[in-house]
Amino acid sequence: MFYKKQKSWEIAESEVTDYEVYQNRRQFLGTTLAVGLAGALPTMALADVTEQPKPFVDVSKSPFSTDEEKTDFESITTYNNFYEFGTSKQDPAINATAFPDSSQPWKVVIDGECDKPGTYDYEDLIKPFTLEERIYRMRCVEGWSMVIPWIGFPLADLLKKAQPNSNAKFVEFTTLYDPKQMPGQRRAVLDWPYVEGLRIDEAMNPLTLLSVGLYGKELLGQNGAPIRLVVPWKYGFKGIKSIVRIRFVEEMPQTAWMKANAREYGFYSNVNPDVDHPRWSQAKERRIGEFLKRKTLMFNGYGEQVADLYAGMDLKRYF
Ligand SMILES: Nc1nc2c(c(=O)[nH]1)N[C@H]1C(S)=C(S)[C@@H](COP(=O)(O)O)O[C@H]1N2
Ligand SMILES: [Mo]
């Protein structure tokens, strides 16, 4: 299955070097682009290249927002993981510019252990809910972090509408499978489609967000358009992108990362500075845009809201 000896998820992490390479490349591209434009292209040509994300109006502020300095829009939209578009952190921004194909309506299925299952067009799905801005700290398992002003609504609002029954112990989320649009899916990097899961009480927690935008505008393809999950006390990979299915289930879902490497990626994946990844420490993180590393906080600093969910659990065992 894997044609490389070293699997993509086994590449040793050195996020600082990685980020410096990205910064240098960006500066280089910026200079070349500016020179090119001054030489030949009229400035308008640039604006026509990609469709601009639409801004949201009437977005309320949330008491759950951090007042820490926000990461710049540029970094949030050009440095991230979305393996369906390639395994480097620059790939999603390069390969997801036309995603999702606007000629195909985006549909989301809600099914499984509930009384009101359904299939919704994206527009109809989000219509009943009040959008708010939630500025969250986000911590990637690889050791970098950002502060992102998401736009969205609590996942619980949607789940309650579907009326889960007493068998609904977990919620399973699935990303679109479409190798035509997602070139990364043409290779067996992960067992596609990408799947994630939450325990039902985690899914119902008021911090858990379904996001449709950031920095006041619709999500770009690379950030998981049109709708994705945001769980700020867990490592970034729990925030599954471009969701097409939300299913109530009785058994703990097998997530894409557990299938790839169960020893390294557990179901819970709560941010925990005391539990190292088998190949690197999780004690510190590099906030994108800052030079010195900072200490990683238990539950990414959201312990007051979520620590109760794990009372009595051995978090070294349930990592
Ligand atoms: N479908 C899908 N969702 C995904 C990923 C992915 O590869 N595929 N990567 C995850 C990882 S590892 C991180 S850190 C975040 C990064 O994207 P963001 O900055 O937009 O949250 O997306 C998560 N969601
Ligand atoms: Mo990540």
Written description of the protein model:
It is a single chain. The protein is of the alpha+beta class. The protein has a single domain (13-136, 151-255), classed as Alpha-Beta Complex (Sulfite Oxidase, Chain A, domain 2), CATH 3.90.420. The chain has 9 helices and 13 strands. It has helices spanning 15-39, 44-48, 73-78, 91-95, 122-126, 155-162, 200-204, 256-260, 303-306, and strands spanning 60-61, 107-112, 118-121, 132-139, 144-154, 170-175, 195-199, 209-214, 217-218, 228-230, 243-249, 284-287, 294-295. The strands form 2 sheets. Strands 1, 4, 5, 8, 9, 10, 12 and 13 form an 8-stranded mixed sheet that branches. It has a 5-stranded mixed sheet with strand order 3-2-11-6-7. Strand 8 (209-214) and strand 9 (217-218) form a beta hairpin. The model is unreliable at 1-5 and 41-48 (pLDDT under 50). The ligand Nc1nc2c(c(=O)[nH]1)N[C@H]1C(S)=C(S)[C@@H](COP(=O)(O)O)O[C@H]1N2 binds at residues 80-84, 138, 140, 175, 194, 223-224, 236-237, 239-242.
Mind telling me the C-alpha Rg? 20 Å
**Structural class by helix and strand composition:** alpha+beta
Q: State the fourth-level CATH superfamily.
A: Oxidoreductase, molybdopterin-binding domain
The helix fraction, in percent, is 10-25%
> Stretches where pLDDT falls below 50 for ≥5 residues?
1-5, 41-48
**Count of individual domains:** 1
Query: What is the chain-wise order of helices and strands?
Result: HHEHHEEHEEHEEHEEEEHEEH
CATH topology: Sulfite Oxidase, Chain A, domain 2
The main β sheet shows up as: 8 strands, mixed
Strand content: 15-25%
CATH classification class: Alpha Beta
- Tally of helical segments: 9
CATH architecture descriptor text: Alpha-Beta Complex
Mean pLDDT: 91
Number of strands: 13
Q: Which geometry do the CA atoms define?
A: globular
